Amino acid sequence: MKHVVIVGGGFAGLNVAKELGNKKDIRVTLIDKNNFQLFQPLLYQVAMAALNAGEIAYPLRIMLSKYKNVTVLKGVVKTVDPRNKTVYTDFGEMQYDSLVLCCGAKHHYFGHNEWEEFAPGLKTIGQASEIRRRVMEAFENAERSQDVAEKRKLLTFVIVGGGPTGVELAGSIGEMSRYYLSKYYRNIDPKLTRIFIVHSAPRILQTFSPELSSKATRALEKLGVQVWTCSLVSRIDADGVQVGNEKIEAGTVLWAAGVRATSIGKTIGFDTDHSGRIIVEDDLTVRGYPDVFTGGDQAHFALPGETSLPGLASVALQQGQAIGRNILLAFQGKPKKPFKYRDKGQMATIGKNAAIAERGNVKLSGLSAWIIWLGVHIYYLSGVKHRLFVILQWAWSYFTFGHAARIVNNEWRFYTNVQEPAEPAEREELMANPACVFAADARQ
Amino acid sequence: MKHVVIVGGGFAGLNVAKELGNKKDIRVTLIDKNNFQLFQPLLYQVAMAALNAGEIAYPLRIMLSKYKNVTVLKGVVKTVDPRNKTVYTDFGEMQYDSLVLCCGAKHHYFGHNEWEEFAPGLKTIGQASEIRRRVMEAFENAERSQDVAEKRKLLTFVIVGGGPTGVELAGSIGEMSRYYLSKYYRNIDPKLTRIFIVHSAPRILQTFSPELSSKATRALEKLGVQVWTCSLVSRIDADGVQVGNEKIEAGTVLWAAGVRATSIGKTIGFDTDHSGRIIVEDDLTVRGYPDVFTGGDQAHFALPGETSLPGLASVALQQGQAIGRNILLAFQGKPKKPFKYRDKGQMATIGKNAAIAERGNVKLSGLSAWIIWLGVHIYYLSGVKHRLFVILQWAWSYFTFGHAARIVNNEWRFYTNVQEPAEPAEREELMANPACVFAADARQ
């Protein structure tokens, strides 16, 4: 009986488990710090109060229940000794015959970790709830404030980073203030609302074609979003954001700029690239360790002369399947196969009826892209029930703009005020290695 | 233009606002610490992962949006000076012509506040999330534990208090372990699960007839719940609960025993009863202050020779309407009318197809009571969308027992690990006066 340990239950890890499910003489242990798979591509909708967290998080055990040889354990992997084939977790150690590390990515503040407090990122349900709390709290405080300057600051939102997540957040805040604020708040002039995307490159969504990128910019501007390109943030604090010589006074700053692989690769001593991603061979094994695999946002996979594959859900999903098949081949004593990526294209949404989608030479924008966006996301969402509920939520919002989930709770102070139970030293270790938040959205 | 200030947006406060909505020459300010109304009767389902929090919380502004003279402000009322008709809040002060205090109730540990850490109560979304986290975490830890004694402790759940909330929690945990644990967890023997209700009185649900109360006991026992009556808890700590000479080693203890009105009545200096409830006249005004009203769990309303009305949603709802009508009469210079309670009966649910309902001499149990329970709760829930979603969630669970919301998130550490942003002194003040959690469930 061979034992496969999978660390991380995102798109990559989950698909490894599925490939190995109910295979003879193999038992699988999947370890994740959460007992659910988070559908990261829709996380921004939880942050924007359009969906409930439970609608995009699906219990791993239910997803894998038909595979009797798969056990899911909730826990944190501290490190791995690849020479002795041992995984060290917060609930003991574990031997493996084959190890899969798919721990995803987390935010990266380019050496400015002090910005995190003022500009939370969007990778976990806790962060989504914190962003929701901040945005809704800004509206609440603006509603009760008597001071126009204060109101103006409270109603100013800066999103750092113009990749898909930044665009989605900015578009949602634009729609919210345009349709929701004006209808339900008595003391807010929606004209006071200002939303900025501050982006370092010459154009937002730079992985798309220039044509689609400028269409997205125009769609954002229609929603009242100001897009600042070639703009570098030099400071973020409680008052707002410093961009070159300009200071944007803002009550809410959100971070959608940089990601970095979880640092477990470094901790173990594997070769990593500048983003902390583990460099893998063409069969997705770690260089020098034929029984250790990695995929998804954790992996740096590049064909000769090319850059690494982007942090997309479809990359993670395909790599997970390939890892599963290669483990089976290896156990049968057969040679592993090199991974071949089938490009499924990319898409981003701006708001109601507005999205962009690109696949090869096909470029779509507006309503058609938006409908494809909806369909693809529903298709990849796990579970019939989740699909039904998300479709209903969207249909409701589409016709009413009345997201009933727009509640804010002071108890939702996950982010800045959570006292971690771990000791400082241990905590640092855990922070360095959160096994595993899956991040399908490292698409900058 | 008369100004009415309502503190608290529960069933009572909300119905005052509705009565005064769009009335000439009246403007209304509703202050609540949350921007939503929480449908407290279904809060235990959020704690038990059967519903999402967003499905039972409805934004006050949307509920009141058709009343142009009503403004909702999110804030905390610190105190009131009834002689100068001034309300002091965390965002400034405010004059009123008429004041309504409906701040509900909170948990009461009978002088043992140190128990709260080990036995959270169920009044807010944060507490519901914390209870969910503890219960699901117990299952997760039991799944990964190798030690039978530890597993047994982790799978032991004690609910202190045998009122409707305690019964609902115990029944849900019973169903969860029977149908869900056995199906999806590989290393848990559901037979190890033990659930206790520890209740001080000779029978649980003592506001119901003895016949229904014993039917509920039998339904609980069918789900594996042990009901200990005439049992007093003398100690709660990390190891479990001490009941007389017996120690129940338990990983999870939940508090459903005592409630107490929020202390704003005492802070202001109004006459209060032993539970902190403000004693009101028959027209729901505070004794000596004809322009201050109170209702719901905050109010002690008793006809001569009778005990105070119970903390039921229907009491709060009717009192809210009566307060609204009396304010209108007072503004017109007419005499206020005494409040008359129309008894709508009471009900409690144990699990699938099992509930009890009583109204006058009509006593129902089992499937019929359960169907009525469903219907009444759907009817009183706010908003077509919430009703639709809750019906769908229930229908899904009914046929599958697969609550897909059964996720646990380490970031959901609202309860014990939340560092409050307020200063200690201020915090105590806030804690003493959380304006306002509405509590429809003080039904012990």
TrEMBL record, chains A, B:
Record keywords: FAD, Flavoprotein, NAD, Oxidoreductase
InterPro entries reported in the protein's UniProt record: FAD/NAD-bd_sf (IPR036188), FAD/NAD-binding_dom (IPR023753), NDH-2 (IPR045024)
Stated name of the protein: NADH:ubiquinone reductase (non-electrogenic)
Signal in keyword set: no
Organism from which the protein derives: Chlorobium phaeobacteroides (strain DSM 266 / SMG 266 / 2430)
Catalytic activity as recorded in UniProt: a quinone + NADH + H(+) = a quinol + NAD(+)
Signal sequence residues: none
Ranges where the FAD/NAD(P)-binding domain occurs: 3-320
Top-level class of the enzyme under EC nomenclature: oxidoreductase
Domain of life, per lineage: Bacteria
Lineage per the UniProt record: Bacteria, Pseudomonadati, Chlorobiota, Chlorobiia, Chlorobiales
Entry similarity comment: Belongs to the NADH dehydrogenase family.
GO MF entries: NADH dehydrogenase (quinone) (non-electrogenic) activity
Entry EC number(s): 1.6.5.9
